[in-house]
Structure formats: structure tokens, C-alpha cells
Amino acid sequence: MTDYELSVDGSRVEPDDAWSVTWLDREAGLARLDNGSRTELCLVEGSGTDWIVTLRGRRIPVVVRSWRERVLADAESAARRHDGPIEVRATLPGLVVAIVVREGDEVAAGATLLTIEAMKMQNEVRAPQAGRVAAVAVTAGQAVAAGTSLLRLE
Amino acid sequence: MRKDGRPFRRLLVANRGEIAVRIIRACRELGIESVATYSDADADALHVRVADGAERIGPAAAAESYLSIDAVLAAAARSGAEAVHPGYGFLSENAAFAAAVEEAGLVFVGPPPATLASLGDKLAARRSVAAAGVPIVPGLQVPLVADGSGSLAEVDLTGIAFPALLKAAAGGGGRGMRRVEDRGELEAALPGAGREAMAAFGDGTLYLEQLIAPARHVEVQLLGDRHGNLAVLGERECSVQRRHQKLVEESPSPAVTPQLRVELAEGARRVARTVDFHSAATVEFLVDAAGGHYFLEMNTRLQVEHGVTELVTGLDLVAWQIRVAAGERLPEAVMACEPRGHAIEVRVYAEDPHQGFAPVSGRVTAWRMPEGPGIRVDAGVVADTTLPTEYDPLLAKLMVHAEDRPAAVARLCRALDETIVGGLQTDLSFLHWLVDDARFTSGAYDTGLIAEAWGDGQPLTDEDRCVAAVAALAGRGDGSGGSPAAPPGGGATESAWQRAARREAVGRRQPR
Known about the structure:
The complex is a heterodimer. Chain A is mainly beta.
């Protein structure tokens, strides 16, 4: 048994002893994994509890936590759940070209909230969960940086 | 051509990214000094570093730099260049730019401005190509809306069979393109498509074509000189597309029979004859399930995927563009060139294929490209590159060449296994899936492949989760230094497999 708890993409995973790890370049995080029948080249990036493993081109988020870190994180997320509203933020810098919703609108999870033009494409920003639009923080025509709060859902 | 045998002494590269690097390489081989152009977002970019000289052309926004005719011309004048290569995209098919370059006394590496003007209007091109006896996709011969305003009031849509494809008259690259199922969807799609077309081309004019599906996208490569010689250099299959934009190209096309190849070549010749053409160009066709073909458009510039043709023909298309621009004749070796073997290109984009291929931003942390026999990589980035968000998210083109298609697919699998990009999500996860997919490996795919077979992507398998977990644990356990706090009741501070991993890692570092 490992002392660490591992979760991949949000769900708990038990590591399999069949896989061996060979570092090809420890500094760069380049490793080869082998279980006798399959060999995979992986890139391992991250620090502390949060890691990203790039496997066959796919970035897979992995949380590696000690018992103590898990207890602390659980307490923190329990506290956050009581806060309610969620901020919808821009994942890319770009130009807000259209705002589909207004304050007070009830939206379903996945509903289009607004459109941001970035990298010459129109990208729709969707609701991460159902809720009511509490406030819209941007206007059409406004340039936004990555991480800019776009609107708040309750 | 100059007395010293060089086509030009100095050439301005009016582009960025991998294609700028590609043109600079051709210049170097031809003994031409290359001058890169860059916006403020690209001051430290690879194409600037590898060029002989560089000229700043403005701020990050493309409209004020790479798309600014005045800024690029001023840079050309400052640099003392004799010729300008526009690459693809940006100003490459802009007739006003080509004319301005010639008026400034410089050579435009591309066809005459009048040719760009006549082909730039896709609607006018459809009319003249139909008149030349080449089949075109059924659809409107007149603009749907001239300004992208969204008003459909006066348009006669009788004779249009839905589903249909809304397209930008000034378009290319899928910008402004929308599939519409009926008149209602068409009206709803107009504003967004018009805006996208306006942003990409400065012209929001849209038209409508019947949707041909299932269809394959096959294009014919042409190379012409200023003396009337026209070489037809085989076809490329470009049916792996998302958002009507190509992701994978190969030559020859697995769908093209010898008979169809002759017909496509003849069609491409006829299309080229409708205009005064020299330099490199591509004539694009749709091929339907019955093998019928329809002219789509002629692009009078270098294509992103030109390398596929270079691999099977052994020709340097960029060098020939430059030599032809200087007045050289295409020799018999080019005119009679017979393609050999099979080549496949995959495009590595900073896009998340599990999020609808949405572009992502960030910094490229790790960058490891494949090597070895039959591999070519045209890249615009290196490790530690922060991607500007203003431009196309193409990072690199990975190409393979082998004696036949199965060998090329096997080589592509091997190449992808050697490829590592860190720091941001790329479409490599899709490409890994693609090279295992039976439709692709058999060659029996069409333009619906991604939408129908990939959709929003593949779920993570349990084994993938396990590999990721083991790798992340090794990342933490093997390098973080500190020992983790143990749960109450104690327990080993190092698992058996952690010890095994460490042993293995240590063992590998020792010389054998």
C-alpha cells in the first residue's frame, strides 16, 4: 500500500504494481512506463498534490495526496460548498462578442452564456452548472484576459 | 534571375510561425537572405530567431501587423528586400497587397494581383469554372447577403436542397462556414458567420452551397511558371476535418482511382486556365460516394499541407515558388515528376479535442518531436514558448513518408509514440486515437469522420487512469524530497512499487 491517495480526473485510483517507471529525463518529467505487455511514454508535470500526466497526447489531471493533505482539502471544499455562487471566468483571453443571458435568467447546465472570440474563432462559454445569473461583469465588445470574471451564477 | 544565380538577394517573409520558418529554410538553401516580420507578440518567436534579419510590423493584433498592408510594405522597404513571400493565410491571397508589393518595385511570390482578385471572389470563381466545363457544387451563383447583416428578405432559395453549407465569398479555412438544416437555421447562422467572415477577411459576404455528404475532400497541387508551363503534382486527401478545417492530409488519396486521378488533373488544368496563373496553387474538389467530383475552390498560394506533396515528389515547392517568381522556367524534371510512395501529415494544434477542439492558450513546457527514417517536422515553436492568443494555434506539422500506405500509417504510429508536448493540451490525443481507428487505417473515411466517430472524444480507460496515477505518484514520490505524513497507526513510508520504481530509475542512470 502506498501512503498516498490517488485520484484521476476526480475519481479514486489504486496504483497497479505491475507498472514500472523509468525516468528518461527526470528534470523534464519524461518517464517510460512498462507493465510487460504495454509501454507508454509519459510526461509528468506538477508539484505537491497536483500533477498532470500527458499520456498518448492526453493531459490527465492526477491528485496525489497524503492522508493529512486529504483531510485538509476535504475540510476546505466542505467550507466552500456553503458559499453558493460560482464565478464563470474566461479560460482564454479574447473579445466578448455576444452576451446571451441577462441578470436574473435561469440557465441549465451547459447552456450558452456568452461568446468570446479568441484565436480567430467564436468560442461559446457555457454554464458549468444550472443556476440563476446573479451578475454579468462584462459587456459586448470588451476585451478580457484569461481568468477575468465574466459572470456569477447562483 | 540575378547574375550570381540566386533568384533574389534578400526576401521578406510576410508571415509567422511554422510557415515563416519553412520559407526561411528555402531562402537559406537558395542563398537568399531572409528577413522575418514580427508583431509585438512574436518578438521572441522562433521564426524571428532563425531569420537573417527581422522587422517589427506592429502590435499583437493581426489587423495592425500581419494583416496590415502598409506595415508590411514599410518593413519591406526598410529591409531592402527584393521579393516578398506571403506564406498562407494573412495577406497571401490579398490582391491589393500583391498589387502594392509590385507597385513598390518588389516581386510578389505568388500569382499576379488580377488573378488573386478574380479567384478571391469564390462566387465569381464558381461561375468561370462552370463555364470552363468543370462540375461545381450545386448552389447559389449570387451572394446571399452582401454585408453579413442577417437579412434574407430578397433571396430566392428555391432550388436549394437542405441541408446546405453557408460559406464566405471571400473565404477559406472554414471561417464563416456553417452547416444549416433549413431556412430557419440559415437565418440564425447568418450574423455569426458574417461576423466571422468579416473578422477573417474584411468582407462579410456569404453564399450558399448544397451540402454534399458523405464526401471526401481531395485537392490537386499545381505549380506553374511565368512561361505558360503548368505541372500537376498529384492529389492530397484532406477529409479528416473539424470545423471544416483540415487536421490530417495524405498523398496519394486512398479514394482516388487511376481514372479519377486523370479526371481531377484535367479539371485542375481547366480551372487554372481560367486565370493567368503562375506559382503554387491548389484546386480543391469534393468527391462524392459514387466518385463524382465537384470543384470547390482554387487557392493560389502555398497550402499548409504542401509538405505531403514535397515528400512524395521530392520537390521543394517553396523554393520553386521563389525561383518561378524570379522568372525561372520549370524544368522537365518538375514537369514530368512522378510521385513515389505515400506521405501523411498530421497537424499538431494547441486545441482540446475533448472540448470540441477549442483552442487553448498557455506555455509549451516540453517539446519532443519524433526523429528517424521518413519523418519530417515543420514546427513554429520550441520548448518554453508562450503561445500568443491572437493567431492560429498551429504548433507543428508532423509528416511521414514510406513506400506504401500501410507502412506510412505504421510510421505515423511510431512517430506519435515518440512525440511529447507539455504545458498545454494538444490534438495529439485525437491523433493517437485516429491512427488506431479502423476507418482511418483502412482508408475508407470521409469528411464526417470526426463528427461521427470521435464526437466529443473517448472516455479514459481504467488502464489509462492507472498509468497516469503511477506516473504522477512517481513524479511526487521520487522527486519532492520530503516524506509524506503517515496516517494514524503508522504504515510504511515507501511502498513496494515506489521502491521498485526508484531502483529502476537508479539502475537506468548507470552506464551499461
